[in-house]
Each structure stands twice: as C-alpha cells, then as structure tokens.
C-alpha cells in the first residue's frame, strides 16, 4: 500500500468527470487500498479516486465515529464503486463540510437529508441502501467529485472567492516558511 498525493484546487484534474469502472479486479482493489491509506493519513473521512488523479467512479468513506463517548474512533471502511443516487429526499440538511482538496477550509452546504444509493463494494457485490445523516452527506460530497464538482461550488460566489483567497494565502505562507 502507498500514500498517494492528493490534488488540491485549482488543479484542473479535479474538474474531470470520472469514468465508470468496467471490472472490479485486483488492480482496482490495490487502488482502493491506497486510497484508504491516503485518506487515513490526511486525515479525512472520504476520498474520491479523482482526488488522487485517477478518473474512475470509485470512492472510499470511513466516518471513524467513536463507538463510545470516550473510546477511540472505530474504523468502518466503506467502498463505493459506480455509486448512484436513486431517491434523494425533499428534506434538506446543512453540514459544515471540508475537503482534502480544499485543505483547512470549511463551509455550510445544504444537501438532501436522506438518499437511496446503489453501488458496488470492494468485491463487486451490488448494494442498495437508504442512507441518512453524515454518511448521506459524505457520499453526496464524494459523488460530486466524480462529476468534477467541489463543495465550494455549492456556495455563493462571495463565499467561494473568500475560501479561495484564504487557500492561496495559506499556500503562499507555506512556501515562504
């Protein structure tokens, strides 16, 4: 396994629409394993293949929520290959979202509160499930990446420009250090 470099905005590859996966094989599973290692190292709770420069409809999620109040986060890795949303709710929820491709920047984004999603897992087995809460939000966020969309695209122009200016300033400060 390897930690892969994560693309950051304004890298144009983040705007590429990802292609469907034709075959779930050992090569794809190796990519998925690397994606998990990269996501955990970052650290994050979701990562789309395009964020590591691979334009395939693959994403990984692990909310890493604690099982008990004081316990360490429990890893529950989930793999979504060729995910699709088949029934978004009319009810909306707002979460403060961040993104490994827009580092250290956060903003409130409104999305459907619950969704029914279809996907293939790590072994190519099909699933269809009703999802809600943070998992529903995270899946929608990562699926946006598959369409070349970043969470900042859901914001007003003013908020998006403010985030991009903060990001540019932080990059400039890192280079100067």
UniProtKB/TrEMBL annotation:
Cofactor(s) listed in the protein's UniProt record: Fe(2+)
Active site positions, chain numbering: 142
Keywords: Hydrolase, Iron, Metal-binding, Protein biosynthesis
Reactions accelerated catalytically: N-terminal N-formyl-L-methionyl-[peptide] + H2O = N-terminal L-methionyl-[peptide] + formate
One GO MF term: peptide deformylase activity
Classification via SUPFAM superfamilies: Peptide deformylase
The organism's place on the tree of life at top rank: Bacteria
Chain sites annotated for binding Fe cation: 99, 141, 145
Entry's cofactor comment: Binds 1 Fe(2+) ion.
Pfam families: Pep_deformylase (PF01327)
E.C. number: 3.5.1.88
InterPro entries the record matches: Peptide_deformylase, Peptide_deformylase_sf
Key word Coiled coil present: no
HAMAP family per UniProt: Pep_deformylase
Annotated family: Belongs to the polypeptide deformylase family.
Role according to the record: Removes the formyl group from the N-terminal Met of newly synthesized proteins. Requires at least a dipeptide for an efficient rate of reaction. N-terminal L-methionine is a prerequisite for activity but the enzyme has broad specificity at other positions.
Name this polypeptide is given: Peptide deformylase
